[in-house]
Amino acid sequence: MTQSIALAGNPNVGKSTLFNALTRGNVPTGISGGKVEVGTYSLTAYSIEEIIARDYIVNERPTAVVAVVNAANLDRNLYLVTQLIELGVPVIVALNMTDVARRRGLAISLQGLSERLGGIPVVETIGNRSEGLDDLKTAISLVLEYPHTGHIQTNFSGILRKEIDHLGRIIQESETLREDFRSVWLATKLLENDQEVISKLKSQGEEELLDLAQVSRERIENDTGEDPEILIADQRYQFVDQVIDSAIERPREALITRSEKVDEIVTHKIWGLPIFLLLMWLVFQFTSNVSGPFLDWVDIFINDFIYKWAGQILELVGLGNSWVGSLIRDGVIAGVGGVLVFVPVLLFLYLALGVMEDSGYMARAAFVMDRVMRWMGLHGKSFLPMIIGFGCTVPAVYATRTLDNEKDRKLTAFLATFMSCGARLPVYVVFGAAFFGASSGTLVFGIYLLGIIVALITGFVMKNTIYKSRPPAPFVMELPPYRIPRPRDIWNQMWERTQGFLIKSGTVILGVSMALWLLMAVPAHQDTGLFDEVEPGDSLFGRISSLVAPAFAPAGFGSWQTTGSLMTGLLAKEVIISTMSQIYAVESHQSDAVETSFSQDLFAVSADFGRAAFLTIQEAVNILPRTVNLLPLVDIGELSLLPESTGPEGATRLESSLQRSFAESAGSSAAGPIAAVAFNVFVLLYIPCVSAVSAMRQEFGPRWMWAQIIYTLLIAWTAAVVIFQTGKIIFL
Amino acid sequence: MSKSKLGQVLESFENSPGGKSLLALARELNLSQGQTKNLVDYWVRKGRIRAVAQQPDCQTCGTKKACPFIFEMPRYYEIADD
């Protein structure tokens, strides 16, 4: 006689591993005795997997069923076991992943568990280490020899118990039904109104039993006010809870896990938001200050070393004074190099964000922000596009597809553009370093925060005026447990995100840099100079920018250089910095005069690299005292590994040029930093890049796209002017 | 007669004014997170609650799901309308 053993269990409990270990891999995974193995959470016919699993056990009647359960997550797994036992088949419980359960401090009494489950065998296994397999095989052999079906008191009580017994007795009286089904199981299924079972009984002509079951269901519903199916499931869950309480000892802290304790604080109604803001402040301190030394080093390496020696090579091949040489140095190296300088900044930003994401905090941040958005009347699901908007606006616009309501979609996409994307970060970093030194992290944090505030205010106003819609649907969020971030995962994230930036530098920014070089090489008028010999301000680009520049004079940055950068920034926000690098490179390199040899330069660059490494450590350590020093009356010292005068931490060529240019356009050196803040706010709020605008057009049509363009332009200009004018009144 | 825990879960979903964490729901029902998740999963299987995994659908973007700017966001549950 052929005997068949079925393996049943919830998804991902190690069924396949155990199956392979038992069969030594001789049978393909997923196929057992010609039947497909299906992971299922229950045997109630809600899904195709559940129907297949149940039909196999009910119709094919395996000799025994090995119920594979995850020992570390028994409360999720025992529901299925109770249903298997109710079916009346011999069941053996393979308590798998017991090593994980032990690590979590769970002590499971095998005997206690077996007793509570009606005396069925319970065996410990660790499938991936092939441990416990002999015990499991012995248990299976015993069950095959002496079939034993468990009988559990599932605690069906009150009227439910009464009706199950009533229908059970009727089923027992029918010889056919008695042979085909276990009476208690069938009675339970009938009370659950299980359509699969009902169809089968109808086909067998059991109309009378079905009528009686209907009467029973009505009696239960009248008595309890609840659907019998819900009552049955609820009582099964209660039974599972009782089994767990009596068979498992959990350490005190396991009852309230460390994750839960931390969550009570970080997702707290009051403290959640300040904690989120503090962490974001730390992220930007870390990003701006710790990356500073390497940013300066890369700047020197590209804009001095590479720029100079590429020029020398071009001289050697006779292209030094040609337009080709100019294109390579002032177009490609200055433009693309100006952006590549920020690779250290992005690496550190993605490191910080990677740690937050991998540790599980990002999900909490989303939860905390969600509460704020709801308070403003925005939809709960809006936080996903918002958070993604911090990376890139384009996927943020597409992320609105998770929202059902069209109005909410449009509004969320609109607001996501105010979340400062990663491409704008280099702008804040370079301005922070140029005008605010060690406080640059605070400037970057302030800009990001302002973006959130503008989005919330805009959302609040629009939600209460033109975009009124039904209140957001309630939801429950499952926060993942905290975990120690894995260095390899973090590195992968850092690299993938930075790689995206590098690819953009080699494609979009390279193209724009070359086009910009051409516009800066072409004279606006024949009297202003020859091709590639014209002063930048007299070039076609300079003159076009000069036409628009007066519009920004009230905001303190009405120079053609900044205006031109904002115009090219419409193509991609990184281009703002590459444009500035190109403009100021042409201007500043004209005055280069220091003669040094290649080996001297190489030595200097190498020495600077070492200093940058030391200074990076110093800046990383100093984040702590700087954070503590924010408290009133506290002043703890900072680490200083190198004398202040050493190292490449002085203002870069671009930073110095910006200081001069902004002092000039703002009217004085003191007004320069105020104009710089106004400029950064404008960059934050003005029209998103062309890719994001295209995504808006594709998703919501041209009208909505133009509304976005006009609104962002107006709000950016107004905010910049208000900041500059108010700043002058307060600080000057 | 007091309402079943399963009924209470659904009631809490329907009557909650905003979002809450699974932990908060568990505390409200005086259950563990695992028990609460079981009850929520029951309603998901039954189709009364739906689990929403938030993954944006960037059809026009070449990188799609490999987009480095997509953060892995938590799953959440909401009442299924239909």
What structural category arises from helix and sheet content of chain B?
alpha+beta
- Overall average residue pLDDT of chain A: 83
Query: How much of the polypeptide of chain B forms β-strand, as a percent range?
Result: 5-15%
Q: Indicate the percent of residues in helices of chain A.
A: 55-70%
The number of helices of chain A is 32
* Most extensive interface between two protein chains, with residue counts: A-B, 69 and 56 residues
What is the distance, rounded to the nearest whole angstrom, between the alpha carbons of the first and last residues of chain B?
Answer: 29 Å
How far apart lie the N and C ends of chain A? Answer: 98 Å
Describe the structure.
The complex is a heterodimer of chains A (732) and B (82). In chain A, 65% of the residues lie in helices and 4% in strands. Chain A is mainly alpha-helical and 732 residues long. In chain A, strand 2 and strand 3 (35-36) form a beta hairpin. In chain A, helix 22 (425-436) packs antiparallel against helix 30. Chain A has a 4-stranded parallel beta sheet with strand order 1-4-5-7, with helices on both faces. In chain A, strands 2-3 form a two-stranded antiparallel sheet. The radius of gyration of chain A is 35 Å and the shape is elongated. With 82 residues, chain B is of the alpha+beta class. Helix content of chain B is 40%, strand content 13%. Chain B has a two-stranded antiparallel ribbon with strand order 2-3. In chain B, helix 1 packs across helix 3 (33-46) and helix 2 packs across helix 3. The longest helix of chain B is centred in the middle third of the chain and has 14 residues, at 33-46. The model of chain B has no long low-confidence stretch (mean pLDDT 76).
Labels describing this entry:
heterodimer; A: 732 residues; mainly alpha; four-stranded parallel sheet; 65% helix; B: 82 residues; alpha+beta; two-stranded antiparallel sheet
